[in-house]
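#struct-queue
[09:14] JT: dropping the first one here, sequence first, then the structure tokens:
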Amino acid sequence: MKIALLPGDGIGPEVAAAAREVLAVLAPDVDVEEHLVGGAAILELGSPLPDETLAACRAADAVLLGAVGLPQFDAADVRPEQALIGLRRELDVYANLRPALGNGIDLLVVRELVGGLYYGAKGTRDDGTVFDTLEYHPAQVERIARRAFELARTRSGRLTSVDKANVLETSRMWRRVVEEVAVDYADVELDHVLVDAAAMYLVQTPARFDVILTENTFGDILSDEAAGLTGGLGLAASASLGDRAPGLFEPVHGSAPDIAGRGVANPTGMLRSVALLLEHGLGRAEPARRLERAVEVALRTTHTPDLGGAASTDEFVGAVLADLT
């Protein structure tokens, strides 16, 4: 099996190196190949997602991304972040899984990833009006809904679909299609919550949620809110899956150029993403559970600066490896 590793920018190469060390222990038979992406790829090849990188990703069993983004490209026409949109579209990884664990919270956000505002028509009219179009096809909603129902079956059997059906036509269609899919999952309890109420409930009573299903923009916001409640974006992982390999696995945090090269980045988000890769990308649930437990142990004993300690990235990885071996 083959993993395409895309270290990227800022702290990306540092957390990617941590992932390599862990994969060498838990999946020594898997071939890991590094490729350029993001700002690093622009600087060397002129494109955030070079053709050779995309080809390597398509040929892999899973793709593992570090982080993309460099301040020098913030106002540029060609930006590192364009690699993310391109990868998601080209690999058709429509189901973004964002687990939120910690502080007594254990929930999963299932976000539709390749439709909605981020991919709809956009532009500027002659009168200066700027527009972004929110649109979905029922087939897009059906496939993400089925993925969410299947995942709910593996957890507590509770699914909350989040929309804005009191205002948006797309949300009314979303709710209708989710109800139609629910007929095939009588064992899963379904409820619908408006997105503004969902944001409030996440803060006030997060235990009411187990699996949250929602569209692209709402999912982007709610999953970050859930991450904030469980320790911050630096600890959060994600898996983006399609109907076939490869899936895209990445920590939620950015490239953090202000601490790049100092050896103090917390690799938790990346290592949790490796656990998702092992389970959903390579079908290896047992080593995934081992890694999740080892990361939890390291979080209790080895605190990097973002958690109020002074441990280095290498020291944190060493604590994880010590528990694994």
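[09:21] JT: and here's the second one, same format:
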Amino acid sequence: MSRYDLAIFDCDGVLFDSSMANRAYYNKILEKFNLGPMSDEEFSFVHMHTAQDSLSFLFQNRPELLDQALNYASQLGYEPFIPLMEMEPYVIETLEKIRPFLKTAISTNRSTTMPRLIEVFSLDKWFDSIVCALDVKKAKPDPEGVFKILKELNVPKDKAIYIGDSKVDEQVAKNSGIPLIAYKNPALEAEYHANDFRQIATILLE
């Protein structure tokens, strides 16, 4: 049994360690325009935001190149970088354990890269709803994506919990009024903290 009816997961940094893939992806775009590689500060930003916001940030000092960068990114695609993504340990075991008792969903700021990710990792097998930046007018930390999931799955927000790893996730949980499990980030203000998915399962099923 669980006190919750729904667990909403962030994607990057929670379900997947995608740091190598995202770094390689954006550095490839910067390299095309003789810029980069990203600084750690720049990477921290792009790892939490939509592709368009990330490129706007990376090209803020060269705004005349932004449209070209967006066009190149759309042609580049994310396929070559998917092999660099690693699913976090115990994800599947945890999902198998909790899904008899509660629904699961993903709310992510990924956009055009998400459909291929769903296909490669068969995410639609494990999640009842997947909402990315393409599905909403306002990306996280706006709560639109979370509310879309709640409505789609017919779950009241007091029966939902959010699992995230960043300040954006902390803010979206606050904005939506649902509790947060902070994953591998003790600096976040959250109702719970977890360092691996086995701890997440314990929290959800206690």
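[09:30] RK: nice, looked through the second one.
[09:31] RK: The chain is about 40% helix and 15% strand.
[09:31] JT: good to know. The chain has a mean pLDDT of 95.
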